[in-house]
Amino acid sequence: MMSFIRIYGLFLRHFYLITRSFPRVLDLIYWPSIQITLWGFISNFFATHSTYYNNAVGVILTCAILYDFLFRTSIGFNMLFLEEIWSRNFTNLFIAPIKIGEIIISLVITALIRALIGLIPAIILTSPLFGISLLDLGVHLFLLFLSLYIFGITLGIFVSAGLLRFGPSFENIAWSTMFLLAPFGCIYYPVEILPEFFQKIAYSLPLVYIFEEARNILINQTVNYENIMNAFYFNGIYLLLAISLFYYSFGQARKKGTLINIGE
Amino acid sequence: MNNLVEVKNLKKKYGSKDAVKGISFNIKENEILGLLGPNGSGKTTTIGMMLGLLKPSNGEILIDGKKIEENRIETLQKINFISPYIELPKKLTVKQNLIVYCRLYNVLDIKSRIEYLVEKLRLEDLLNRVTGELSSGQKNRASLAKALINNPTVLFLDEPTASLDPEIGDFVRSFLENYKKEKKISILLASHNMSEVTRLCKTVLMMKDGIIIDKGHPEELIKKHGRKNLEEVFLKLSRSNDELY
Description:
- Chain A has one domain.
- Helices cover about 80% and strands about 0% of the residues of chain A.
- Chain A is built from 11 helices and no strands.
- The longest helix of chain A is centred in the last third of the chain and has 32 residues.
- Chain A is globular, with a radius of gyration of 19 Å.
- Chain A starts with a helix and ends with a helix.
- By secondary structure, chain B is of the alpha/beta class.
- In chain B, strand 9 and strand 10 form a beta hairpin.
- Chain B is globular and about 50 Å long.
- Classes of the chains: A mainly alpha, B alpha/beta.
- Chains A and B meet through helix 1, helix 4 and helix 10 of A and helix 1, helix 2, strand 6 and helix 3 of B.
């Protein structure tokens, strides 16, 4: 049985870390705000100079906010894991009677809170600065955010599995995963722009369905539930794969001795 | 006295290299067992397997009668570990760290457990200080408090007084002696400080190349090998090619 107390304990470790340090909170807010401000101006420019976007001010900015949420969730999950390695607390954590599932749940919750700390001020900024509200996506906004959140933590679990198996040498991969997937996610452009082979890759990821749907809602003012369902379908598959890989990596790390070396 | 820890024919292979080659030993209740050996002798690998961080290639480890591989969470609840090579999160205060580990070990009365350890380890003035800003000796005491947070029945100590000045080193040794007497816990002590091992341990295992090459009371070993102290015994056995045990 999962223990809520242990999940809370690990959450508390990261909560203390965030709340103890003003620079950390500032760092969480700073990058999303910069990102959103930059894309806000780009969005305004395209809205007045592009036939594709001319009747939907804020499409690019909305997609930028959605992508940033995905990015923050994924990086946030990795950061929590890396934090244990950097602070040389890794061994302490893995000799505590905490289950792998409890570690994952705790990091999933903490990653969401970290992402929201950064994103909420950025979203608030968009309204007075650019006259755009994410709420234009309506109730479907929640489904898109949920889908992105699941994919963000899925990527985080994939990368953490790599860190668990290969140790800190996998750190660079942790930072670059999102950049590798971004072109296939079709965040700022329709999927048809991609070459045919790349389109096949894009359609095997949930991202393309999420961002296609966000554009569809804002530009066509209609909702295609098939896109939303496809995103959840692929999310489910990748999440299961990621969790399985994490368990497998833990087993391999115990065989190869990474858990001992990683903490020292 | 009961065996709280039983290690049976324990082996660990990394690829084609045998790090631990089928060792067996027990730790009794209320006993401090010393684990000595030169670097690369298999001590860390042995402790890693006993902490559940490493999967043995063969053999089994029982903590309080339960196999660690089959009862990982249950056995981890009963053990703990301190090493100078691992640290508590540096940005958290000592108190925050202890609260976090109380939660992770499901300690029920957090307040009284922390108060008890604070008093025993003289942590009053350190409790609200950031762990990363403490001196080596202060960090060591905070780590020791974490290692005792779950009231462990078996404690693993890897170089517990390394990098400490003689006064603090002596405080830690005295504390461990008294705590063991009071709680009747079992301790596995891996150390390169031979006077510490002589003072604390009734039984010593000497490891080399993944096997136990000798075993006994420190005084017995000194007598058996015709040396003046345990350090000389260590040097003799480390340089010898023979298996003596």
